[in-house]
Amino acid sequence: MTPPDAPAVGIRLLDPRLADWGFPRWGSEMAAGLDLHACIPEPLRLAPQAAAILVPSGFSLRIGDPGWCALVLPRSGFGHRDGLVMGNGTGVIDADYEGEILISAWNRNPAPSPAIVIEPGDRIAQLVFTRIGRPRLAFVAADDGTPGSARGARGFGSSGRR
């Protein structure tokens, strides 16, 4: 399943508990996301609508290939069922970033919902590797006379719902 041109990604374990928790692993044979564990010393309580908290993952990566990056995404069940989402929406891990992967955890539930409790070792997010396309950028004058598209500058739902 690994593309033949996929880079060899280096993983540096920073927290020895990860090996006991089964890291690294995908949740199933065909899962896209690599499970990320909360490497915290004690349970963490996320109050509803409180500021996002950076949770250490206990490892770092060396992707090294500018044609690839990794994305930190919420786990679908934890987000949908319990309200645990990423405080930054999606975390982008660039090919040249080699620090610890941090998970921005946020309780999206309205107050006065109960806090979400994250236990040490809980799988709270997932890491997805993806290719990156970097186009050549060409500056054009705002009034260069080239015809625009029929859509033009209309956005935010202007193409309809169906």
TrEMBL record:
Gene3D superfamilies: 2.70.40.10
Reactions that this protein is recorded to catalyse: dUTP + H2O = dUMP + diphosphate + H(+)
Enzyme class per UniProt: hydrolase
dUTPase-like domain mapped to chain residues: 23-160
Keyword list, A-Z: Hydrolase, Nucleotide metabolism
Origin: domain of life: Bacteria
Record-listed E.C. numbers: 3.6.1.23
Membership in a protein family: Belongs to the dUTPase family.
Record-given protein name: dUTP diphosphatase
Gene this protein is translated from: dut
